[in-house]
């Protein structure tokens, strides 16, 4: 295969398709791109196609965007091209890693064929799907928000005693059953039924336990 000719034809096709959107990248070459030949190119990718408008009522975040850098390698397309995604707006490092993994899978499936157009298309499809997800914080911000909310909840518990939740009720119920069984066992062993074990209802015991916990 004449790799140089294949690469030149692909670039010509990409320039015809994307026109001014496809530009020569003049920044620092990403680390690990030692086997590249020719220029490094960049293209900005957004969720919408050219001329496409967001449908009324859609919750898609069309402001999301990223930049794809790519360059041919010596034996491309029989060897993978070099590529790198960079966030332009609204994407986290985790988002870029997920999309990069998607593109890496496309590379393996398309070895031996010109594939940059496929990578651009796949990145756009990934971004479209990401843009339609309900608006959420990036994972790091979401973790911080969850931790802050948990601390507020814990502070409220310390200030007002134990809140009744399915989890706290289950824990209490296990304790209640165990102590009630132990009380009955002691009463039977002594030959006298323990009046407290016989008469105290679960509700009374639970309220008493909550009162003791609050006093503590």
The tally of beta strands, per DSSP, is 4
Any idea how many domains? Answer: 2
| The CATH top-level class label of the largest domain | Alpha Beta
Low-confidence stretches: 54-60
Shape: elongated
Helix-strand makeup class:
alpha+beta
Output the strand order for the largest sheet: 1-2-3-4
CATH architecture of the largest domain: Roll
CATH superfamily of the largest domain: Ubiquitin Conjugating Enzyme
Please give the count of helices: 7
Distance between the amino and carboxyl termini:
81 Å
Mean pLDDT: 79
Topology-level CATH name of the largest domain: Ubiquitin Conjugating Enzyme
How is the main sheet built? Answer: 4 strands, antiparallel
Pfam families: RWD (PF05773)
Organism: Haematococcus lacustris
Protein name: RWD domain-containing protein
GO biological process, one term: positive regulation of metabolic process
Question: What do you see in this structure?
Answer:
The chain has 216 residues and is α+β, with helices and mostly antiparallel strands. It has 2 domains: 3-132, Roll (Ubiquitin Conjugating Enzyme); 161-215. Helices cover 54% and strands 13% of the residues. The protein has a 4-stranded antiparallel β-sheet with strand order 1-2-3-4. A hairpin with an 8-residue loop joins strand 3 and strand 4. Helix 2 packs antiparallel against helix 3.
Question: How would you summarize this macromolecular structure in one to three sentences?
Answer:
InterPro entries: GIR2-like (IPR040213), RWD_dom (IPR006575), UBQ-conjugating_enzyme/RWD (IPR016135). By secondary structure, the protein is an alpha+beta fold. It has two domains: 3-132, Ubiquitin Conjugating Enzyme; 161-215.
């Amino acid at each position: 295969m004449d790799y140089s000719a294949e690469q030149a034809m692909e670039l010509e096709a990409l320039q015809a398709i994307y026109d001014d959107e496809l530009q020569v990248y003049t920044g620092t070459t990403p680390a690990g791109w030692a086997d590249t030949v020719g220029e490094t190119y960049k293209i900005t990718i957004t969720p919408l196609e050219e001329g496409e408008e967001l449908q009324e009522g859609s919750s898609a975040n069309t402001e999301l965007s990223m930049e794809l850098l790519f360059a041919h390698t010596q034996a491309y397309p029989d060897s993978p091209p070099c590529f790198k995604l960079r966030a332009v707006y609204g994407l986290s490092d985790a988002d870029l890693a997920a999309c990069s993994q998607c593109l890496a899978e496309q590379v393996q499936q398309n070895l031996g064929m010109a594939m940059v157009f496929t990578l651009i298309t796949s990145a756009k499809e990934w971004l479209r799907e990401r843009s339609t997800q309900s608006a959420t914080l990036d994972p790091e911000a979401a973790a911080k928000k969850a931790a802050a909310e948990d601390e507020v909840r814990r502070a409220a518990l310390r200030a007002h005693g134990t809140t009744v939740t399915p989890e706290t009720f289950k824990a209490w119920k296990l304790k209640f059953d165990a102590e009630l069984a132990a009380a009955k066992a002691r009463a039977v062993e002594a030959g006298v039924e323990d009046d407290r074990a016989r008469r105290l209802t679960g509700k009374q015991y639970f309220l008493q336990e909550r009162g003791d916990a609050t006093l503590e």
